[in-house]
Design a protein that fits this description.
The protein is an alpha+beta fold and about 750 residues long. It is built from 27 helices and 23 strands. The strands form 8 sheets. The chain has a 4-stranded antiparallel β-sheet, with no helix packed on it. Helix 1 crosses helix 2. The longest helix has 13 residues.
Length: about 750
């Protein structure tokens, strides 16, 4: 209640200093040393003025102690100034990390109570989806699509209704969760530790040690503080800008500019209402380089969005820079530029599509991205026959089956919403009204597939305008207008979308428009517990928190665990992404992410598992292919012939390799027998897998042999009917005939 009262007081007096251009009291209190530090928000912004007024009650009109604590009256002794907190403060101790999840209930939560509740339960905190992929790949969790583990023990105790969102959104999500309980849990258990006493009996449990060493990107941690990975903790991971090199470049003379690991400037990034000044320029929105700090690994969508293919970890890669040096690793990878996403090229940021519920979470425990993300391409672009506002709720994801809703009033409500035009909203999204950039609604805000207003996308006469957080206002191409005016840039686009309507109904839009995707095949890696080796346990390190809110990884006093890891991918490709079926039942691109080929060495140096590919209870290879939106969409979609009549894209892979055979490169006789006495195997055999490309999900008879997506029960390879359609040599002629009927 005290938090609410403080916020109300701030609102009452917010306009008292609406012309404020500088700190209220320069050269006093904390500003005695930090006088030139950048304001966390522009001085005359609503948030900054709230902070100043709330902090003034603690004897600090400059707002520092509200978030950091400390003693604003101490201006000579740095150590004393950075101790304790003013009487009445929610904080008990000075903290340099007010955005850390251990601190946000006392800092950010003074006004952002919903986010403080939802963020720890979001997928960026739990990593539940990634954990499921790893445990599944090691054969530990192949019996079903239940999501069991998170980085930390996490409970959703307040039911299935989201804590914010429109009425339609809340009811949609209640039904979605009830119908997909394996993807939306009430509780996640913490990743177990590898039990060394049982390792010989269950060598696959080494995966737990791997996960505890791998999961450095979740919001509870500071993360790997190396080039490209510099970031803050908790809320600060996204809302505080860090340069790739990790140096402070602001005006505060008390902050060391010679050592990496600091924020770029002491200013929050958010929306248009949060411009950040850096050196001689400025930007608004959450910069994409911030997203890179975590999303450079796993599915790598942040990098692909910019056209970057992470190709290597060797430490050297061309081209040479102006000093004659090769590329430096960024977030541990080196890159090749392929082609950036059309939305990126237009100047859009990640947050322009990904909503509050996507990024902050909505208060529920979600286990997988496909179940949490609410935006669909049709929400802004519509279809060739309907404008976005003419589409019903749910178009594009097909997750909710109204026939399975038991509650009659809920069933009636959603049956109507999922069958009639969604229309426009005259009211902005709830959290955007309170904290975001508010735009003129014009004719109305467009709605997401789940019924929330898109606060930055409006209908304005015969146009749809997207207000990017970057500051750009973009006109959105509308498919119905393109069809009506016959302004298709590519005739094949009309053929694919207007003539063959099943493309729209049965496929994700990005299946055709993603012209490339990073795919990593055969992740051969070893967990070695011999020689008393140790590696960081990021899970325990992030739970070891000192009195000022810093985790053990932030102070580099890591909690260690037994073991070490080494390994690499068999190969990486980007061309011609394969096709399969995702959790929504739609045709989608498939990529290799971590196709586990596991090796385990015990404490005595014995190899107790070698190059093992696990299998599911149904006998499928557990290395699996992952459905995803690669975020590489372009106006020029994949050519029809890239999928039709293409065996690799259908899932048949390449033939000829035999991974179960030892490969020698040495002197041999005519029958292939190695004749030298001094020889070593060049490529050791891999158990279970029969095709060295790691791309084959179907055998020659069309039977599925590799798993597709452990997140849902429904994903898989293309059906025989779909494959027969792709193998039809008359496909182009039939499409043109359908187009002729439409034009008549």
């Amino acid at each position: 209640m005290r938090n609410v009262v403080l916020c109300l007081i701030a609102f009452c007096f917010i306009f008292a200093n609406d012309n404020l251009k500088h700190y209220p009291a320069p050269n006093t209190g904390c500003l005695t040393c930090h006088n030139d530090i950048e304001p966390i928000k522009p001085h005359n912004s609503q948030m900054a003025q709230q902070i100043y007024i709330m902090s003034e009650s603690f004897g600090d009109p400059n707002g520092c102690v509200l978030c950091h604590g400390g003693n604003p009256k101490e201006t000579k002794d740095k150590l004393k100034a950075h101790l304790g907190a003013p009487s009445g403060s929610m904080l008990k101790e000075f903290t340099a990390v007010p955005g850390a999840l251990s601190e946000i209930d006392k800092t950010c939560g003074l006004c952002h109570m919903n986010q403080v509740s939802s963020v720890p339960k979001s997928i960026m905190s739990t990593d539940a989806g990634k954990i499921k992929v790893i445990t599944f790949g090691w054969g530990l969790d192949t019996q079903d699509d239940v999501h069991r583990y998170a980085n930390h023990h996490t409970i959703d105790s307040d039911g299935n209704e989201p804590i914010y969102g429109s009425e339609i959104y809340k009811k949609y999500m209640i039904s979605l969760i009830e119908q997909h309980k394996n993807q939306f849990a009430d509780e996640f258990k913490k990743i177990p530790q590898t039990n060394m006493e049982n390792l010989a009996k269950n060598p696959n449990t080494a995966a737990y040690a791997y996960l505890r060493n791998c999961n450095a990107c979740h919001l509870h941690t500071k993360g790997k503080q190396v080039r490209g990975h510099y970031r803050g903790m908790g809320c600060s991971a996204c809302h505080m800008p860090y340069g790739v090199e990790g140096f402070y470049e602001g005006a505060d003379k008390s902050i060391d500019k010679t050592k990496p690991g600091h924020i770029l400037v002491h200013s929050m990034q958010g929306g248009r209402n949060s411009p950040v000044n850096v050196n001689d320029g400025s930007f608004s929105g959450i910069n994409i380089s911030t997203c890179n700090a975590c999303h450079s690994s796993g599915r790598r969508v942040s990098l692909q969005y910019q056209g970057l293919f992470p190709v290597d970890r060797s430490g050297q890669y061309i081209p040479f820079d102006s000093k004659g040096h090769m590329q430096q690793p960024n977030a541990s990878y080196l890159y090749k530029h392929i082609r950036e996403d059309a939305h990126y090229k237009a100047g859009m940021l990640c947050q322009d599509c990904h909503t509050t519920a996507d990024v902050h979470g909505n208060g529920n425990l979600g286990g997988v991205a496909l179940g949490n993300i609410e935006i669909e391409c049709q929400d802004c672009h519509g279809t060739p026959t309907k404008y976005p506002w003419e589409l019903p709720i749910g178009v594009g994801e097909d997750f909710v089956d109204t026939s399975k809703i038991s509650n009659k009033s809920l069933k009636d409500f959603l049956s109507k919403a999922l069958s009639q035009a969604r229309g426009l909203s005259n009211i902005n999204e709830e959290e955007a009204q309170n904290f975001g950039s508010n735009y003129d609604k014009k004719d109305g805000f467009l709605l997401s597939a789940r019924g929330n207003p898109l606060n930055n996308v409006v209908k304005d006469g015969d146009k749809v305008i997207l207000h990017s957080a970057s500051g750009k206002d973009l006109i959105v191409p509308i498919l119905k207008d393109i069809e009506k005016n016959n302004t298709w840039k590519n005739p094949k686009g009309r053929l694919a979308m207007s003539a063959v309507i099943s493309h729209i109904d049965k496929m994700e839009c990005y299946t055709c428009h993603s012209t490339w995707a990073s795919s990593y095949y055969g992740y051969d890696y070893k967990l070695d517990f011999s020689n008393k080796s140790q590696m960081i346990d990021w899970i325990e390190s992030s739970e070891s928190i000192d009195k000022n809110g810093k985790t053990a990884d932030a102070t580099k006093k890591y909690i260690m665990q037994k073991g070490s890891i080494e390994g690499d991918y068999s190969h990486a490709r980007w061309e011609e992404p394969m096709l399969g079926i995702n959790g929504e039942g739609k045709v989608t691109p498939l990529v290799g992410v971590i196709q586990t080929v596991g090796t385990v060495v015990d404490e005595k140096g014995n190899v107790i598992l070698q190059n093992n590919v696990a299998k599911t209870k149904d006998g499928l290879l557990a290395i699996d292919m992952q459905p995803m939106n690669p975020h590489t969409s372009s106006l020029e979609a994949r050519d029809c012939a890239e999928c039709h009549l293409n065996n690799k894209v259908m899932g048949f892979g390449f033939y000829g390799g035999n991974p179960q055979k030892e490969v020698f490169i040495d002197i041999k006789d005519s029958n292939g027998k190695v004749l030298t006495k001094h020889n070593n195997v060049q490529i050791a055999p891999i158990k279970n897998i029969t095709n060295g490309s790691f791309m084959q999900i179907l055998d020659e008879n069309g039977k599925q042999i590799m798993s597709v997506d452990p997140h849902f029960a429904t994903p898989g390879a293309l059906s025989k009917e779909q494959i027969n359609t792709l193998k039809d040599e008359q496909y182009m002629q039939k499409a043109n005939e359908m187009l002729e009927k439409i034009d008549k």
